[in-house]
Amino acid sequence: VQLVESGGGLVQPGGSLRLSCVASGFTFSIYTMSWYRQGPGKGRELVALIHGADSGTNYADSVKGRFTISRDNAKNTVYLQMNNLKPEDTAVYYCKRATGSYWGKGTQVTVSS
User: Which SS3 state, helix, strand or coil, does residue 110 take?
Assistant: First the structure.
């Protein structure tokens, strides 16, 4: 199992970023996938998840209405569209397969003026 995130960077408050996570080594379409983040001095928290069967989604309250998780099963890729970013969104963002302890290496998102 391999998960490779990309798309992080430095963005001003109010800006947008789109994170991608390319998966390999398993049947991507049947698994729930999730995005987590870990801010400076904080624990790792669940940001959003998307189910494999029906692409149903769940979000942390802190990102509802601003972030959108989606998936493209043909490309074995899960996305996180982040809009109206705030300084408190600054974190390393990780992709995870919901079943089993499979994590990507993370991508840094910094929101600062």
Answer: strand
50 SS3 class: strand
- Between CA 76 and CA 66 the distance in angstroms is 24
- Taking residue 110's Cβ as centre, other Cβ atoms within 10 Å add up to 15
Q: Could you tell me if 38 and 91 are in contact, meaning their C-beta atoms sit under 8 angstroms apart?
A: yes
Q: Any idea what the Cα angle at residue 63 is, between residues 26 and 52, rounded to 5°? A: 25
What pLDDT, on a 0 to 100 scale, did the predictor assign at position 50? 97
As a whole number of angstroms, the distance between CA 37 and CA 47 comes to 7
CA distance linking residue 32 with residue 50, whole number of Å: 6
Segment 21-29 shows an average pLDDT of 96
